[in-house]
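Chain A, query sequence.
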Amino acid sequence: MKLWAEEGERVYAGTALEKSRPPQLETDEAPTIDRAINNASRMPVLKLLRGAHGFRPKIGSPVLSSGPAGGIEYRAGDPWDGQVLLRTSGRISVRRYIHTDAELALPRLAGGRIFVDALATYRDYPQLRYFGQGQNSGRSNESNFRLKSSKVELSSGIRPVRILRLGLTGGYERADTLAGTSSEYPSIELQFPPRTVPGFALRNEFATTGAFAEVDYTDQKTSPRRGGIYSARLNNYVDQNFGRYSFRRLDVDLRQFVQFFNEQRVIALRAHGTFSDTSRGLVPFFLQPTLGGPETLRGFRNFRFYDNNAMFFNAEYRWKVSTGMEMALFTDAGKVFPDRRDINLSGLLTSYGGGVRFNLRQSVFMRVDTGCGREGCQVWLRFQDNY
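Chain A, predicted structure.
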């Protein structure tokens, strides 16, 4: 994962491909909460949350450490029958995390075979966690930093058949990393020498290009119960200011869902790898993949491990308890490492545990997981499915 999701929360053009990115600081709850409100819109209280005249509340933490967040979203009317879609939103959390975005999408060109999407985002996250580089970083070294970033990105692609998406991306990104504002943990520059934190206290600017491919033959877009999603994304970052932070990255994400026992049981499997080519420069620490948290290793604190490369594996056994509720047992394994030559299964960190999922119309809107690892146990309450 990187510190934030590369494409924010694409509402119109996004699919499971958005979740194929490296686990990162931003794991936005708002899209899941929106779906839950829509699915339960017959309830009078929740019907009010759908808003009016294009305006609606925007609820959900944009990142794990932000605390509860809320704001407002505007979605333009749809006189073109879904051919042109426009939205913009802004949120602020109880810890003063700010997230704003605007999106213009053309999702159904040429009879739905061509899609175009433009997304602009701004983020000000004042207390993001950092423990140091590598898998041997100490838990006692926890620090925090502030990230202010803005990005524009254009994505375009084709759907030659229903289950396949192919596309290209291009954009520009600017990020400032500053002293953190937390009173609980020291700021990053007080805990680590600046030379050991690549890209800190600099105005980093990147021109980005990329390509992606996805095969998705699951039974439903959210909370699938059978089928598979296989995706790959190649991104190229070109440092515009210093010439030291240009790199390429490949993200590969494989998911498989097996349903059995009268469709009441599901085995959910995931394998994810993020691999960086550093032959041209360093990977800034805030763009490095991370492990730890409710999306990767649930027995470790969120964003516990940073490095140039990461790989992780998840396995879940899920079973239906009653209408609207499922239980799950899971195990996770993964590691971060500095060099691509270290791609192997040795030295994997592991965690295990169980949880409960709540759903509306077969779409998970809330889950509670307890995961345990070598550093103790963690409890996660998330308003989104994990994969």
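The domain at 16-267+278-286 is CATH 2.40.160 (Porin). The two ends are 14 Å apart (CA to CA).
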